[in-house]
Description:
The complex is a heterotrimer. By secondary structure, chain B is an alpha+beta fold. Helix content of chain B is 29%, strand content 24%. Chains in contact: A-B, A-C, B-C. The B-C interface holds B 52, 626, 628-629, 631, 633, 669, 671, 673, 675, 677, 682, 684-685, 687-688, 690, 692-696, 757-759, 762-763 and C 115, 117, 123, 140-141, 228-236, 238-239, 305, 308-309, 312-313, 315-316.
Amino acid sequence: MAQGTPESxxxxxxxxxxxxxxxxxxxxxxxTGGSASATEDGVPxxxxxxxxxxxxxVDARTSLLDLLREDLQLTGTHKGCDQGACGACTVxxxxxxxxxxxxxxxxxxxxxxxxxxxxxxxxxxxxxxxxFIDTDAFQCGYCTAGQIMSxxxxxxxxxxxxxxxxxxxxxxxxxxxxxYQNIVAAVQQAAKES
Amino acid sequence: MSALSERxxxxxxxxxxxxxxxxxxxSGLAKYTDDLAGRAQGTLHAYPVQVPHAHARITALRxxxxxxxxxxxxxxxxxxxxxxxxxxxxxxxxxxxxxxMFYGHAVxxxxxxxxxxxxxxxxxxxxxxxxxxxxxxxPEAIAAGSFQGGRPVMTRGDVDAGFAASAHVFEGxxxxxxxxxxxxxxxAALAQVDENDQIFVQSSTQHPTETQEIVAHVLxxxxxxxxxxxxxxxxxxxxxxxxxxxxxxxAALGAVLTGRPVRVRLxxxxxxxxxxxxxxxxSRWRVGFDAEGRLQALDATLTADGGWSLDLSAPxxxxxxxxxxxxxxxxxVRVQGFIARTNKTSxxxxxxxxxxxxxxxIEDILGRCAPLLGIDPITLQRxxxxxxxxxxxxxxxxxxMTRLTTAWDQVISNGDISARQREIAAFNATHPHTKRxxxxxxxxxxxxxxxxxxxxxxxxxxxYKDGSVLINHGGTEMGQGLHTKMLQVAATALGVPLSTVRLxxxxxxxxxxxxxxxxxxxxxxxxxxxxxxxxxxxQRLHEVAATRLGAHAHDVRIVDGVARALGSNQTLEWNxxxxxxxxxxxxxxxxxxxxxxxLHWNAETFxxxxxxxxxxxxxxxxxxxxGFTGAYRxxxxxxxxxxxxxxxxxxDIGQIEGGFVQGAGWLTLEDLRWDAKTGRLLTxxxxxxxxxxxxxxxxxxxxxxxxxxxxxxxxxxSKASGEVPLMLAFxxxxxxxxAAAAFGPVGTSVELASPATPEAVYWALDTARNRSDVAAxx
Amino acid sequence: MYPFTFIKAPTESAALxxxxxxxxxxxxxTTLVDLMRETVERPxxxxxxxxxxxxxxxxxxxxxxxxxxVRMADLAAHPVVRSRFPVISQALELSASAQLRxxxxxxxxIMQRPRCLYFRDVTAACNRRAPGxxxxxxGGENRGHAVLGTSDQCVATHPSDLAVALVALDAVVLLRSRxxxxxxxxxxxIRRPGTTPDKEHDLRxxxxxVGIEVPGGAHTARSGYLKVRDRQSYEFALASAxxxxxxxxxxxxxxxxxxxxxxxxxxxLSDVERLLIGKAPGAELWAAASAHAADGxxxxxxxxxxxxxxxxxxxxxxxxxxxxx
Lengths: 194, 778, 325
């Protein structure tokens, strides 16, 4: 199959895949309309998200992030880059922080996920959620869910000994608004409470 | 102090409160445009067909193969446009072009039942092209005479006389790239035809009115048939001031033609390759100093890289010219501006809007020349500050220099600058392979839209019968805390607790004809409008309260939701007051308006008073550079910033810290590069375009607001904070220059590329290290 | 991403059978999912091996054995690795981000594919991805590319930090197939492009990495990894150096030096090591030895700085590990 076309031709026909680049994965079979789309065999996946069990059938290409957002309507976890570089999609998988955009949903049958929507318990904000409000640790808020889930992971991993350590261990989360100073303060505050 | 600026008792403004959406953000409940897609039924997904040629004529477009892909519903092309095939306001940006103008230009869009179907459909579309010659770099464009827009000239005095009187004259050239916005939320729009046959578009846009205008004229409709709402943006930074309109128009066109909602969400790659960025600039300069290092003359040419279409390039260039002075008095000036037309994405607004670029030129000049003049850079900068009463080269009087000098002095004392400079000198003398340096930057930045007509805003405030208040204004929220400030303004103006007031999303059917949320004036002008609406309501409520309390309306005070008359203990609770007003048939809704007074600008002569006031800030940065690798760290930053009497301190401090980080990113890390042969954007992913991370934060970061500096003539004495702080980061660049110079003999002038990556710093320090004399410079 | 059949292998034999039939193994997925999304990788069948047991971290007297499915984060945090093989834990912790390190496995890490933007762009000429189509990097954007180990077919830098540390320590890859087990040094497992840039690894069809083995020795404890990059965190190296020194009684008994970020494979500097062994540590020695860190370098138009940077990075790290005296 042709890969790249010589640019010297006067009149070129650009066929498929001439400009593909990083393509987002498809949504699962359970589209917004509720009807299954006619793609390849769907793969059944059962997982527990925020304490609630879900059994879905998805296209194998579905990322965990798209499963959450498109199939389960949990839109609190955001898509910033879809290539593991910004951390906005961070969730807790079996208690560990990961980038949900860079893993396939079908690999996590039986897993337990916690997303931002499930962090508060019984109406009580998690100490880190509270700390984010106390220290004003966001501006546009788009990276916030990922920052908080990553912060929870960071605290669990025990890497909050100092501001320097927090900065290094949270460095997989980008904040374009530059609220880093306050995010570090929030993580420090919550780490003390843990 | 004017009525606009004076604060009442117990105001909400000035209180450090959390962002109004705080609890929604931390619990994942705050919605952004694409999060709404799941709420509509039968939504179609739109996917662009991008052409990989910097410049080409389309000779054929075959969409039938796309229609054969399962799930593809329609392909939108120029033939589908009922109105005008245009996505910009200058009529130079076809929505469906027949000439490809940059690598990755979208020529048509595919609508599919799923994103996958739309994507496969887009890949199936066949586009025949005839490649055309392309101009990629600014020097290429200059050589080819490829320009667009105007060629403003700013002059004052007589530069030739100025040079003749100069003891030292230097020349140089400086080219630097722009900056990618990288808002975490990419461009998104969701359009549908609603139950009233209204075209309703949710758009991640800083300028709902213009989005509305473009959607309307693409659809061949009148504005009143289109409503645009912006719930919030996951970052804007100027990148959503003009760029969203075309995407919204695609979604709206699709919705009208299919009868189904249409979702547009650019992937990160699409966003980076299709949307415009900060203008890079090329500059040539000649500068003259007197024997004491005072600037005498500056003759410069600034060429902005406009990309393929004009977009906001003209005002960006104007602002660049208006800020080449920064805080320094230039008695004789001649600056000529050009906008290059190149075959790249159309450069657009980005925090600072040409101001950072103009200021970068003068700071680079001072940084390069200080060692040649034998004058310490901080002394050189201070010596050249304006004195109150002088005017800028474009004729605006400067009369708040005490703000800047006070901030300068505070940074020097809070930052312990003199002692640290001595420590740094001692450190450098004993460390051959590691050097430190400390530099300062003053910032003077003009606040108002350069185009006077944009300095207007509206608001709509409703008081419901139960006493609850709903406010609407024309500004949009992109994280800069505008909505938070507006709630505080409303609560203050009405005299009620913050909890009484709620804010509704920005929509064109609430407030019409709004300006973009830009130029840092969002809170100035929308705050003025909100206050105006609230003042009208307050007036009416005072009348009602007066009769109830047996007092004169002027003697009524409403504080914390309780009305009292002066000298009386009788009280009237807010809810009672409102109810009484309703039953008296007093209007409990008001439309507010604000126009910035005192502005005028003559674009022909490049003279006037375009700015309501200047924002000021001062920063000092200390860096440490590794002589082996050029790697560096920022040890400490101290900032004192003038935001007048802050409307919302946490918000303003956030803007200062965030602006600084973004400016530092532009100058040290973010290296936007295009392939000079193909015009393709090489740094098109976050792994190749490096954004500041936690680790780039200074180890010590001290930020404080200048105290006791209320700004008369602006809402509640406040000043803008959005863009001004970005330029504070220049001190990081200058500190790196000085640290590199420290590897060489005293008096070494260092040319430092921008961004000052470790590699650039290494080359600079290596050049300094190998220098055996101090005479010549680059 | 192209459609594929997904299989979760419940046992080693099922995994090996699926691999023998052309299935592509996936564990952490951080490389594969990314490349599949860019359509650089288009496997017809993807085999999830995360149910397999390769999760041991065993430190014996003579060697450290690490299962292929051990996560980067877990290996980096292991107390024995931190104290006895700090170059490994440092190389790991300077890689990627915490989230990615929680996902990615040791086996996947050494199979990592290049960051070259032309490799990752299916419309560009790339001999590694599509043999015979040319190399767009040689005349194009090549600031991040290699100055060592290149050929006229490919100049892509090897991206793994861990692999540099492993090569410095003579680590071995443990492979298994239906035909049995095989051992091969990491330095031979990861191949230079030569005339076959598409053959990145000495991995035979149906073979699965089950683990790595790092020989112990007196040199491993006094070791470390230095990474030079534009951004202070979460970034691939411009240049890096893994150094391990056995210094006793003021004499260097053993030295291991390898550089990353500058070569098409993790680049062992045996000549530099020879100059160090038997000498007394000191600044002059570091300077003299590191002067050879880039011997044989062939810079491209955009990456000439790496020649100097490689030497200086080695010098800096020798001083750091061996003492600045």
